[in-house]
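During the no-cost extension, the postdoctoral fellow (Dr. R.K.) reprocessed legacy sequence entries with the updated structure-token encoder. One reprocessed record is reproduced below for audit purposes.
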Amino acid sequence: MADGSRAEDTTQKMSNEADRKFVAPGVAHVVVRDVGAPVTVTFALMPRFTLLAFTSAIEPLRVANQLAGKELFRWAVVSSDGAPVTSSCGLPVVPDGGLTRDIDTDHLLVCGGVEPESGLWPGLADSVRTQWRRGRVVGGLCTGAYALARAGILKGRRFTLHWENIAGFREVFPDLDPIRRVFCVEDRIQTCAGGVASADLMLTLIEAQYGAQLGQEVMNMCLMNRRRFGGEDQMISLAARLGTRSERVVKAVAYMEKHIEDGIDMEECAARAGITRRQLERLFADHLGTSPRQYLNDLRLQHGRALLTETNMTVLDVAIACGYVSSSHFAKSFRRKFGVTPYQFSHFGSGRAVPRTNSVEGGYGR
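Re-encoded structure tokens follow.
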């Protein structure tokens, strides 16, 4: 009897620990009836994942459980081999185990971050593809869309990732076209821009499973005073970013951003804005404190910096992609702005080169 009592005590202790992990005590309460089995969500952490994107996703699930006083959601954290994963800010996270191809979960979300191409460990895309084919929901937070692209499931579907990584993503996957939205949900594929956009995505999951009232109370607990929806742009309007209400300036800059890889003629740019080139020069000086040509050059250099960071393109290829007629011109401009040469800044010059291929594991689009 003594042994039986100890076994019962151990079982009860383990049950209590599980309850504390998934259901924390709290004052606020929302009545949620007719709850079936908890929705399981597995977070796969890529090396140097963005901590903010990860915590913004997992905390709303915890809060939902706390408000309901029961397990609405269960979550697990996995890595390539079960070892701790260091986030982009240097903080390590200890996972529950390693990711296996046959993992049992309702949702598999890949958490990406900086240098996503080098963080794709062998088998990650295969696991994502297997889960999706079995009817499960898969997704990517921040740059987690890289894993979904390697899995070959994004073709013809709406998806997104962080705006800073879109240029590099398009170069690595020229047949895929991400959109700059807060989040996208389509055909059991969930993607978001990362950061606090992960919370917006999770609110969609919470409301779909348990209703709008719980979603609103989760927002209140997380001090979210505005709900963003998937169709919204990741950033504030171009006019707000530029700090001007000049419609002509905004039109000219929008034209530059859209045609950054082309040989932009300033006469054409001015015409698209409905003004003369002289007027364009004056408006840029008045509203942006620079000339149209210098503003365009800065745009191209920032674009080049993104490509050098996110891809293994050569300096010449980057120069062409940024609209420069020669790599030497691009290199001089880059060094003048950033203090290093493009080669020194790139994966090759820093010794961080990673394999680059446009095929997924097992064949593109399998």
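The first helix runs from residue 2 to 22. The chain has two domains: 11-221, 238-350. The remaining legacy entries will be reprocessed before the final report is submitted.
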